[in-house]
């Protein structure tokens, strides 16, 4: 797995190629199971393909027949042959149309299924998977890798059969016309094939490098566009333009190098191919002179030879396509083989609400991506149903990790977490997560309307429920101030909401979800006091009668919680209510409180800034 990630964007290593050869075909064939439901259409397409190839193969024969007519050696009239020729053309045109249409039907539908399976798989994989992969990489699996497969189904496969058909059929025909000339013609072949293979391999290597360079330029664009505000704040536009130009220049250099070889190769092939044909004509002319062959046969022979030459060239391309396809299908099946944390095909409708008694017993945890660093050590804590606790501590102490474990984003190394006395691992994962709502630090809004964003908390909510949730979250006021109200578009292409407004949307989502357990990750950045008041009021409403875990950054907001757990380096070092903890001499909590109030008496400062 890690190996694949290392090789991403860094070109196909020799080791990868070996793998492609050994298991690749098997993998590529596995992808064909997506074609299985459409095999009827596929077989019909194959018929169209075979018959349209057959009609193409008659062209040289018909040209030969026309020449015979001209030479006076045919039993047909020129008009008869011409009409027949047109007939064949019409049949060919109709067959080609249906071939393309049926193959497209199969490939479009099969690729829709591949994409759907991939997306369903990706979205149901555990959080850990996403730490190993970059979003861009997953995007390219679902877009370009699938497109590569689609090309194979819609074009390459048809081409492959056409070329093989032309090659085999063509050689059979010309051997029938004149075996002597055929042997002469085939004599030039090995030379051409070896040259094409050697050149081809080299060209692929150089082109691959050009492609990798292009991928690097995309990284520059992606990075700068994502952090456009930083670029502008540092007025580094010119620096970035230069960086991009440099990167582009490398692409050009590599592409031109590849083009030199490609150009050389094409000139060589043209020379060799036409040289071969001239040779065939020369030898054929002697056969005609000696009476072994008639002119019409020579013409047919030459046409077939050109067909055969074209198909040999085409097969080289197809081989390169096949290699790419094997790579793409390997990367796709690799993801499809991962184990989902929930069944993507089953949307669980059964929901068992919990009461919300939470107990952590001696929990120890290390992130799988950083096995050498223990994040939580022996953490024990308890929240009774309906109670509120706060986790306090410097940045990096492990507060967020504690709640992520409750959601079962990761497996514990030791200890247990129980809800209502039952180990969280014993719950159905969907059921467990349905019982928990999170109001995150940074609220992420999806592109869409405010209404859609709120109803994300309960997709089947009625309009009245959504409005009521917005009202309880103190969000109605600002929503009503927009001309389009609930239908206002937000997210990347819509209205940009302020931090406080986004938080209220998140609160409304949680209100709609209405779970027994609430996780509140306080925003680190302080809101203005008006916004703060509205958000706090909404939160107070939301917290009522729910087991709440607050990841606290501003201590003023947690005075009234039942228990405060102070964490340092993944350990709970102080436990108690606000008043109890203040009494501790030289306690961390009391120091933090002092620090916050010393820093400013009016402003609230994030604990996190004190790392
Ligand atoms: N996905 C992850 N993979 C590896 N290490 C992680 C991951 N998430 C967090 N960590 C590390 O775990 C430690 C605890 O992080 P955590 O986010 O739980 O701290 P926190 O107390 O919530 O901090 P903050 O208040 O800044 O959010 C940190 O050292 C952090 O670097």
Radius of gyration, in angstroms, nearest whole number: 35 Å
Number of domains: 2
CATH superfamily of the largest domain: ABC transporter type 1, transmembrane domain
What is the beta-strand fraction? 5-15%
Assign the CATH architecture of the largest domain.
Answer: Up-down Bundle
Reported for the largest beta sheet, the result is: 6 strands, mixed
3D structure, described in words:
This protein has 611 residues and is α/β, with parallel strands linked by helices. It folds into 2 domains: 14-337, Up-down Bundle (ABC transporter transmembrane region fold), CATH 1.20.1560.10; 358-608, Rossmann fold (3-Layer(aba) Sandwich). The chain is built from 20 helices and 12 strands. Strands 6-9-10-3-11-12 form a 6-stranded mixed sheet. Strands 2-1-4-5 form a 4-stranded antiparallel sheet, with helices on one face. Helix 8 runs antiparallel to helix 10 (237-289) and helix 8 packs parallel to helix 11 (295-336). It starts with a helix and ends in a 12-residue tail after the last helix. The model is unreliable at 1-20 and 602-611 (pLDDT under 50). The site of adenosine-5'-triphosphate has 14 residues, from helix 12. Belongs to the ABC transporter superfamily. ABCB family. Multidrug resistance exporter (TC 3.A.1.201) subfamily. Its main location: membrane. One of its GO terms (cellular component) is plasma membrane.
């Amino acid at each position: 797995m890690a190996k694949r990630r290392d090789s991403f964007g860094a070109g196909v290593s020799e080791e990868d190629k070996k793998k492609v050869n050994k298991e690749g075909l098997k993998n590529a064939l596995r992808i064909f199971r997506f074609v299985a439901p459409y095999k009827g259409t596929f077989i019909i397409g194959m018929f169209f393909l075979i018959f349209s190839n057959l009609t193409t193969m008659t062209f040289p024969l018909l040209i030969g027949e026309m020449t015979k007519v001209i030479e006076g050696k045919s039993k047909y009239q020129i008009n008869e042959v011409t009409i027949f020729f047109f007939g064949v053309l019409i049949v060919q045109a109709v067959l080609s149309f249906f071939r393309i249409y049926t193959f497209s039907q199969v490939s479009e539908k099969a690729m829709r299924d591949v994409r759907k399976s991939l997306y369903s798989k990706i979205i149901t994989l555990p959080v850990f998977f996403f730490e190993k992969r970059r979003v861009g990489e997953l995007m390219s699996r679902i877009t370009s890798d699938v497109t590569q497969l689609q090309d194979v189904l819609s074009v390459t496969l048809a081409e492959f059969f056409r070329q093989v058909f032309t090659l085999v059929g063509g050689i059979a025909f010309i051997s029938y016309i004149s075996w002597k000339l055929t042997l002469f013609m085939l004599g030039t072949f090995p030379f051409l094939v070896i040259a094409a293979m050697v050149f081809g391999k080299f060209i692929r290597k150089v082109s691959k490098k050009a492609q990798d360079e292009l991928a690097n330029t995309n990284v520059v664009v992606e990075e700068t566009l994502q952090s456009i505000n930083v670029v502008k704040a540092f007025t580094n536009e010119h620096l970035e333009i230069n960086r991009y130009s440099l990167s582009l220049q490398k692409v050009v250099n590599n592409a031109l190098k590849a083009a030199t070889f490609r150009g050389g190769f094409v000139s060589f092939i043209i020379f060799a191919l036409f040289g071969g044909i001239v040779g065939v004509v020369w030898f054929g002319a002697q056969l005609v002179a000696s009476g072994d062959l008639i002119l019409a046969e020579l013409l047919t022979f030459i046409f077939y030879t050109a067909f055969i030459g074209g198909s040999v060239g085409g097969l080289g391309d197809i081989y390169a396509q096949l290699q790419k396809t094997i790579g793409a299908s390997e990367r796709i099946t690799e993801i499809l083989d991962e184990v989902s944390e929930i069944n993507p095909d089953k949307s669980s409708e059964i929901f068992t609400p919990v009461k919300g008694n939470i107990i952590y017993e001696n929990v120890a945890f290390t992130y799988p991506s950083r096995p050498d660093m223990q994040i939580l050590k022996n953490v024990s804590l308890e929240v009774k149903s309906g109670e509120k606790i706060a986790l306090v501590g410097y940045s990096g102490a492990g507060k967020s990790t504690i709640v992520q474990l409750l959601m079962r984003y990761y497996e514990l190394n030791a200890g247990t977490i129980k809800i209502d006395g039952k180990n969280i691992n014993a719950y159905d994962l969907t059921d467990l997560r349905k019982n928990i709502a999170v109001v995150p630090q940074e609220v992420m809004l999806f592109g869409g309307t405010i209404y859609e964003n709120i109803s994300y908390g309960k997709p089947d909510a009625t309009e009245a429920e959504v409005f009521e949730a917005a009202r309880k979250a103190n969000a109605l006021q600002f929503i009503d101030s927009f001309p389009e109200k609930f239908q206002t578009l937000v997210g990347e292409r819509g209205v940009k909401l302020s931090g406080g407004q986004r938080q209220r949307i998140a609160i409304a989502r949680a209100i709609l979800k209405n779970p027994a357990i609430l996780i509140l990750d306080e925003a680190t950045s302080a809101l203005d006091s008006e916004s703060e008041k509205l958000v706090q009021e909404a939160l107070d409403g939301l917290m009522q009668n729910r087991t709440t875990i607050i990841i606290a950054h501003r201590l003023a907001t947690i005075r009234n919680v039942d228990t405060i757990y102070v964490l340092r380096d993944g350990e709970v070092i102080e436990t108690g209510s606000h008043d109890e903890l203040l009494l501790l001499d030289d306690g961390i909590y009391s120091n933090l409180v002092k620090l916050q109030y010393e820093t400013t008496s009016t402003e609230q400062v994030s604990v996190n800034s004190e790392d």
